[in-house]
Amino acid sequence: MSDAMEGNLNQIVEVIDLHKSYRLGKNNFVHALRGTSLSIKKGGMTAIMGPSGSGKSTLMHIIGSLDTPSKGEVWLAGNRIDNLPKKKLPKLRASKMGFIFQGFNLIPTLTALENVALAAEYKGLSRKESAKLARERLDVVGLGDRIRHRQSELSGGEQHRVAIARALVNKPDIVLGDEPTGDLDTETSREIIQMMKEVNMTTGTTFVLVTHDPEVADSCDHQIQMRDGSIVDDSASKIDGSTKTLS
Amino acid sequence: MRLLRNVFRRKVRSILTILGIVIGVFALIAMGSMAEKLTLLVDGGIEYYKDKAIVSEGGGMAFMASPMSKDRIKEVESIDGVKVAQAEINMLLEDLEAVNFGQPPMIVGTDLRGQEYESFEITFAKGRDLKEGDHKKVIVGSDLVNKLDAKVGKRIKIRGEKFEVIGILEKTLTGPDLTVVMSLADAQELYHKTLPDVLRKELKAEDLVTGITAFVDEDHDPDKVAKTIGKEIEGLSAMGPKAFQDQIGSAVGVFSAIITLIGLVALMVGGLSVVNTMSMSIAERTKEIGIRKAIGASSFKIIRQFLMESGVIGIIGGLIGLGLGIAFTSVANAAGNESGTALFLVTPRLAISAVLFALILGIIGGFFPAWRASRLNPVEALRYE
Ligand SMILES: Nc1ncnc2c1ncn2[C@@H]1O[C@H](COP(=O)(O)OP(=O)(O)OP(=O)(O)O)[C@@H](O)[C@H]1O
Ligand SMILES: [Mg+2]
Fold first, then answer.
1. Cα B106 to Cα B92: distance, rounded to the nearest angstrom
2. I need a labelling partner for B147 at 20 to 30 A (CA). Which of A73, B96, B157, B210 fits?
């Protein structure tokens, strides 16, 4: 699976000089990312922080193959993914990534079980297998007795757990969370982070979380600070003492 | 059923859309079944006349009964290619009170001369065929059984006279269903009574004939024989199978096509409402589409999902429309049966094509919205609230 990259296979994600600009009108560009580079260690928990508009979501979307960069490279587990043909993306998303978004990210007409199973079905599993896997994952996040509930019948914390179960159902290499605890109270937020940490420890799944919450960031082993589309602080580079500290 | 839950996520809207399809399919069934009935009637006629020439006085239509002389039989039989000529009386079972769609109930009196040459197959549900020497006996077509309250062995009244029912025909879905058959002599008597006074005094019942059916030899073309009859016998004209098809078949064909088209247009309108509903539904579910894409749905799967939803709307509408259509036509037919006029016939091919058409319409109606949904950029879709 991995030979293309001469670089370190301990790095699950490698982002090299990423640029993203949006065109607003004729000569007006928004530079959401301006030359971002970073590495994310396999099996770790990384927090991405920064003020609103600094490009965190944009970065996550590009790493997650939901969006394409204007310039730069994205490598996932030794394979370049930013230039893959569009047709290959669904499979990549289904089998290698898990997403947790802020807000209502469950499909409201589906039950908890169906929401989780859907991701497995998109990966190509049969309905039956998918349902079985989904039930297992919901058990892991402690919702074994809520599988028939819909979004409207679940608390905010429970909805997040369903989202986590869905992100994990295909045993992805990496789970990308964009403010996964953003709208939760401190107590529930702690529970959710605790659960992710457990999954991280037991399965070795890599987590990358965008967060405004210092407590969440502290419970991660790697912190990245962004501002105006650039990385201004990266705890990983401090530890090896090798490179840059901007600002 | 996830699919049904998605379809009925907005109940009122989906039900209204389904209703649009229901009305369309209902119209198609009602109109189409009328066309089917007519078409079968004509098909039966074409089948019946395929080896015959219908001879009548002057240039009139064969069904319009105007009297002619019985001596004509000999003349017709003298024409090359005519096996046998059968004298007939064709008259209305009862005088029409109103303009009537389709075929009115008829009395046919026959001298049975062509009986052994008949190629048109008719089977008897009960009883037996007419035979030489039967007097005041009738055979009743299946659609007239109720109207006349006919049973084998029972005596029924026809145009004021009593007749014994000796046979009841199996349903043929065409002409014979609405026909009472009796001996020529019996029919002549009935017919004689209907004539205006002046004519009645002048003509004798046993000389009356309204039509002659010439049975044509297998090795002769009935159309050519018909032509020869018209040319060689002064005052007679004859119609072969082709003329029958041209005159009656094409007129009915155009009429059938028009009423079927009306039904189709109604269904199209229903199909447009599917486009509208699916577009609205997809706009509302933009975020959901973003989520589906983010967790690995391919464009194909997105399209398939929405097409299945619109297909379900089409199928449900189609089946309900079909049900209502069948209910309506059978009630209307039952009411019509009292007077012997069943106007509608829901054939399997009509039922299947109506439902299939609704399904296809649903899918086509859903296609453009589904295709647009599949092309949504996942990031933008996710951002959508
Ligand atoms: N589709 C777009 N068109 C134009 N500009 C965009 C688009 N998406 C993002 N941007 C801009 O790019 C910049 C970075 O946006 P991004 O969503 O990545 O910020 P963020 O760090 O996630 O902020 P927040 O913490 O508020 O979620 C912002 O200035 C934003 O306005
Ligand atoms: Mg953001």
1. 5
2. B210
